[in-house]
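Today's session is about reading a structure prediction critically. Students often jump straight to the picture, but the first step is always the sequence itself: look for stretches that repeat, for charged clusters, for runs of hydrophobic residues. Only then move on to the predicted structure, which in these notes is written as discrete structure tokens rather than atom positions. Here is the chain we will use throughout the hour.
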Amino acid sequence: MDANELLKKVRRIEIKTKGLSRNIFAGEYHSAFKGRGMTFSEVREYQYGDDIRDIDWNVTARQNHPYVKVYEEERELTMMLLIDVSGSRLFGAVGEQKREMIAEIAATLAFSASQNNDKIGVIFFSSKIEKFIPPKKGMRHILYIIRELLDFQPENMGTNIGEALRYLSDVLKKRCTAFLISDFIDSSDYYQPMSIASRKHDVTAIQVYDKRDTQLPSIGLIRLNDLESGEECWVDTSSKKVRNAYSRWWYERQQVMTYTLSRCHVDCASVATDEDYVKALMGMFHHRGIK
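Below is the predicted structure for this chain, in token form.
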């Protein structure tokens, strides 16, 4: 992508996502993630209307009367974007490329965090950690992130979600809000690093997929190219058996993802490249806000 084209794309995404974050997402974002970055201040007696999740059971047992924990919101909060830059993000048969939608979602989240005066950092990952952008504030920093989202060229094409989560746990000692944005096409087991990261940080998963990921069309003999491994093979899509096997592979992979995220208590939004990601994010924010 040449410099002029890149600047035009950055500007287009800035205009669209900055407007979304300012007019739609900023309030929802703050409401949904108001619990992150909270530090313990004191305990006091329970009052009618207090959230029962804030009850300090140890103090309550000692005093034989309910007490709740009181928190103060930290002035400097941090959002980390974990961005999948593996080869499969370049796929786009229905709607736009995954890479384009991932960039827009990440930019919208970044601008929403900026509205709350949060720091924003990024981890680009494939089968290894490709790049780490330390958390900072400011418009120049966000625009730099958007440019990298659009134009970053990874060294590897595979996917290792667990590696990204381990790096997050190692590099950020202080609790943060982390958005893992990926198509989750990963054959490795990432349950343990997800479990560790979600206990330390407030992790949310956003799956961006293409509907052609989910099933093969019946269009005869076609050559398929694995964007991550580089392998090519001929597939007879007119075979119902072949199409069913492919659909079963997708279904089983989705089940593993759903089970892993559920066990780790990680919220997830899933959006196809031809769908409106605004609706998906708003649904996720609303769900978190009422939990």
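Discussion point for the tutorial: The chain has a mean pLDDT of 85.
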